[in-house]
């Protein structure tokens, strides 16, 4: 079987060029979408991600700002920053870059964001509404994956979908979105005993494990759609996914590359949700 790449980067570029048009029509009405990112500490990967977000936001016409805060900031002081942004009418989207330092309770900070400015979909109000089927903001990574599947006309109805990973930001919302499209979902995690067998039955496999190249061709049902959420570094510092892409070639029907697959879609959904906040005003 010939395996096709799901080219997230290309779709992201197309969607972002459509966003420029949307932002321009907002500008004509005197509205400038604003996105502010709070970045705590010096984590190298976070620095790169945040700079990427800012660059792409700026490219589509979103006014984007990064507030850099010291690793040692207290939870109370970080919450104070969040509350200031809640009050700032020029800020439509607030993103607190995760992970936060260990002494800070992430959930406590996220729940202090005005949920109407939560463009990550991580606020409990948005998570709850999403669970109930009327979301106003969605977690960007699974949302981007759904857009990618839609763009390639991949049907989910009646398919066996396996999500490996159960995080609040990827695994859990991913499973729910696949279920909404009438897939039969299974969620696997670090305590799952028969992972390979489950994987071999999956028509759609989403790998969000955090272990480089763990999913090889022998896990893959012939013709399966393979989505790689992994962002790992190999010994040489090169970005690699959870899926050993080369080894699933010829087995899967589709696979997302890393880089160039899920990552660019995540950022694009963040921009989309920021613009939507202003469009809805
Ligand atoms: N509040 C919050 N929201 C997030 O959405 C969030 C977060 N915290 N913390 C970290 C993760 C990670 N994340 C990525 C998004 C895009 C790429 C991306 O664009 N990756 C490129 C390659 C980048 C590279 O070369 O390093 C690609 O896959 O092609 C990566 C990682 C968002 N996250
Ligand atoms: Mg923490």
From TrEMBL:
Keywords: Amino-acid biosynthesis, Histidine biosynthesis, Hydrolase, Methionine biosynthesis, Multifunctional enzyme, NADP, One-carbon metabolism, Oxidoreductase, Purine biosynthesis. InterPro entries: Aminoacid_DH-like_N_sf (IPR046346), NAD(P)-bd_dom_sf (IPR036291), THF_DH/CycHdrlase (IPR000672), THF_DH/CycHdrlase_cat_dom (IPR020630), THF_DH/CycHdrlase_CS (IPR020867), THF_DH/CycHdrlase_NAD-bd_dom (IPR020631). Residues 6-120 form the Tetrahydrofolate dehydrogenase/cyclohydrolase catalytic domain. SUPFAM superfamilies: Aminoacid dehydrogenase-like, N-terminal domain, NAD(P)-binding Rossmann-fold domains. The keyword Transcription does not apply. GO terms for molecular function: methenyltetrahydrofolate cyclohydrolase activity; methylenetetrahydrofolate dehydrogenase (NADP+) activity. Pathway: One-carbon metabolism; tetrahydrofolate interconversion. GO terms for biological process: L-histidine biosynthetic process; methionine biosynthetic process; purine nucleotide biosynthetic process; tetrahydrofolate interconversion. NADP(+) binds at residues 165-167. It catalyses: (6R)-5,10-methenyltetrahydrofolate + H2O = (6R)-10-formyltetrahydrofolate + H(+); (6R)-5,10-methylene-5,6,7,8-tetrahydrofolate + NADP(+) = (6R)-5,10-methenyltetrahydrofolate + NADPH. Its EC number is 1.5.1.5, 3.5.4.9. Residues 139-279 form the Tetrahydrofolate dehydrogenase/cyclohydrolase NAD(P)-binding domain. One of its GO terms (cellular component) is cytosol. Homodimer. Catalyzes the oxidation of 5,10-methylenetetrahydrofolate to 5,10-methenyltetrahydrofolate and then the hydrolysis of 5,10-methenyltetrahydrofolate to 10-formyltetrahydrofolate. Belongs to the tetrahydrofolate dehydrogenase/cyclohydrolase family. This is Bifunctional protein FolD. It comes from Jeotgalibaca porci.
């Amino acid at each position: 079987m010939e395996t096709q790449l799901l080219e997230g980067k290309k779709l992201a570029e197309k969607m972002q060029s459509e966003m420029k048009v949307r932002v321009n029509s907002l500008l004509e009405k005197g509205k400038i979408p604003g996105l502010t990112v709070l970045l705590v500490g010096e984590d190298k990967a976070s620095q790169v991600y945040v700079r990427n977000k800012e660059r792409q936001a700026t490219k589509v016409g979103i006014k984007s700002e990064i507030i850099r805060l010291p690793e040692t900031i207290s939870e109370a002081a970080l919450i104070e920053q969040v509350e200031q942004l809640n009050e700032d009418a020029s800020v439509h989207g607030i993103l607190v870059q995760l992970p936060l330092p260990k002494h800070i309770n992430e959930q406590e900070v996220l729940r202090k964001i005005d949920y109407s400015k939560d463009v990550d979909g991580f606020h409990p109000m948005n998570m709850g509404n999403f669970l109930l089927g009327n979301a106003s903001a969605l977690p960007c990574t699974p949302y981007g994956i759904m857009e990618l599947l839609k763009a390639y006309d991949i049907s989910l109805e009646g398919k066996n979908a396996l999500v490996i990973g159960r995080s609040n930001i990827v695994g859990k919302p991913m499973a729910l979105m696949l279920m909404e499209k009438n897939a039969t979902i299974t969620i696997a995690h670090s305590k799952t005993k028969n992972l390979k067998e489950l994987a071999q039955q999956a028509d759609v496999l989403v790998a969000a494990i955090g272990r480089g190249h763990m999913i090889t061709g022998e896990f893959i049902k012939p013709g399966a759609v393979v989505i790689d959420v992994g962002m790992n570094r190999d010994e040489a510092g090169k970005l690699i996914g959870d899926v050993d892409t080369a080894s699933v070639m010829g087995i899967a029907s589709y696979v997302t590359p890393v880089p160039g697959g899920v990552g660019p879609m995540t950022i694009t959904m963040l921009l989309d949700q920021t613009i939507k906040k202003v469009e809805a005003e």
